[in-house]
Design goal:
The chain has 20 helices and eleven strands. The protein is of the alpha+beta class. α11 packs antiparallel against α13, α13 packs antiparallel against α15 and α14 packs across α15. The two termini are 14 Å apart. Its main location: membrane.
């Protein structure tokens, strides 16, 4: 068995250990007994290949379980009395329609506090605040582990109806403060160039901001299967960079030139929107898709993809189970790497003109790879998603490029910015009309009650087995002893 195969098995065991810790809530004695039993089983195994494979899996599983245990916070009991503490606004301010969400870090509290404050007075990143309120632990909302979701950003407490006093300004990281101020300025320029809902649409594409969308418009995106367009996630970036690479190659650029141009573009884009942890992960997944197309060797890509996921999950184990953005990013990348080419042959009846066949194969690959997760996380699936994405997604790089030029032109001349803004409006108008038409179909969205993670795991086990049989080069001796 090659070293790369051992590493892959260890990584799979590591992911399984983390998943078991967070999903099964096993007592420690059960875990120790299971690992001990597996070691006894391996000791008496007669096949060396089977022995090594199971041993690697056990080692990875134990490491993942221990890492999840170590990362699980040990917090003091919930405080029932009012507490006064001083902290700094450590993340971008989240303004809602009826309130403002502030993430406050304080030396007096273990972990950060999510403070729900009134809309006014306004606060910004880096403000030092004196807060008086009762700290509460976030709970479970309609089966959703809201507490685990907040842990992804280091938030372990919530605070509502606080009394707040501003102490000082500008005490945060200067680079992050500069990026957030710039992001706010860009958002204002977008709102001046375009009117609603197109301004919010472009802001979602360029900055990942979704504040201006009405519930009705968000429902259109959901039913059409295009919600990912509004989120800066690996699902979105991997599809867009794949389409842009095909576009550059059709323009006559060499593959290596297109690769480095897109890597530079992804890096600039990540910095442009604030370089948060989720955006950085999405950018990395996009670069991995470019590497897969650049090298054309699935074995190398599998190793790098596995190593990248292993580093991300080892750094913050909760993302594996509770971060839907990371899950969609990883699975869509796997789908684009392994399933795009086979699915292009499935849709070979489509013409190659304008990249229709390639776009359809990529969209179908990402959709198929994320389908079980979508059913589990969102309780439904858009059956028109492939058609909508094939018609809309290829134009999104154009809208983003023209929108970026319009925003940059606004620093020079507002009339010039409006000139660039008109074609952006046309592209966004077309996209919204297509999505509204598909979303208006009575059968476009199917709610599914497949909310058990066991069903999702079984679906991915079948899909993974099919991909393994199709692409992996596994010694036959291994199968004889499994």
């Amino acid at each position: 068995m090659h070293l790369s195969q051992k590493f892959f098995i260890v990584a799979c065991g590591f992911f399984a250990g983390i998943g078991v810790y967070f999903l099964c809530d096993l007592p420690a004695i059960v875990f120790v007994f299971a690992v001990f039993s597996c070691f006894i089983f391996v000791f008496f195994a007669r096949s060396r290949v089977f022995f090594v494979a199971v041993l690697c899996c056990i080692m990875g599983f134990a490491g993942g379980y221990w890492r999840a245990y170590a990362a699980d916070p040990r917090l003091p009991p919930v405080l029932e009395h009012t507490l006064t503490f001083t902290g700094i606004v450590s993340r971008e301010v989240d303004q809602r329609l009826d309130a403002t969400k502030l993430t406050v870090a304080s030396a007096a509290v273990s972990g950060s506090v999510l403070v729900t404050a009134p809309l006014y007075p306004e606060y910004s990143y880096g403000d030092v605040l004196e807060i008086r309120c009762t700290l509460e632990r976030p709970g479970i909302i309609d089966g959703f582990r809201y507490d685990r979701f907040l842990e992804l950003t280091g938030v372990y407490w919530t605070c509502s109806r606080p009394a707040i006093r501003l102490v000082s300004h500008g005490q945060g990281n200067q680079v992050m403060g500069f990026l957030l101020v710039g992001k706010g300025d860009l958002l204002g320029r977008i709102n001046r160039i375009l009117h609603e809902p197109y301004a919010s649409f472009l802001a979602g594409l360029l900055l990942g901001v979704r504040r201006g969308f009405t519930p009705e418009l968000l429902a259109v995106f959901q039913r059409a299967g295009t919600t990912h367009i509004l989120a800066i996630s690996g699902y979105n970036i991997t599809l867009i960079v794949g389409l842009m690479q095909s576009f550059f190659l059709r323009l006559g650029l060499r593959r290596q030139q297109a690769f480095w141009l897109l890597v530079f573009g992804v890096a600039v884009f990540v910095i442009f929107v604030g370089a948060s942890a989720s955006v950085v992960r999405a950018g990395i997944m996009g670069v991995l898709v470019l590497l897969a197309r650049q090298w054309g060797q699935r074995a190398q890509v599998r190793q790098i993809l596995t190593a990248t996921a292993l580093v991300m999950v080892a750094h913050r184990p909760q993302v594996l189970v509770y971060d839907a953005g990371f899950q969609l990013s990883f699975l869509s990348t796997v789908g684009l790497v392994y399933l795009s080419a086979p699915l292009e042959r499935v849709v070979r009846w489509l013409p190659e003109r304008f990249g229709l066949r390639e776009n359809a194969g990529a969209t179908l690959a990402a959709t198929l790879a994320t389908l079980p997760l979508s059913l589990f996380q969102f309780g439904g699936i858009s059956v028109v998603a492939m058609f909508t994405n094939v018609l809309v997604l290829p134009l999104m790089p154009l809208a983003m490029g023209l929108g970026f030029l319009a925003v940059m032109a606004s620093f020079v001349s507002w009339p010039v910015a409006q000139v660039f803004g008109y074609p952006v409006w046309l592209v966004l108008l077309y996209a919204l009309r297509v999505m509204e038409w598909f979303a208006g179909l009575s059968w476009s969205y199917w709610p599914v009650a497949a909310s058990q993670w066991q069903f999702m795991a079984a679906a991915y086990a079948v899909l993974g087995w099919l991909m393994w049989v199709r692409f992996a080069r596994v010694p036959k001796v291994f199968f004889r002893h499994v």
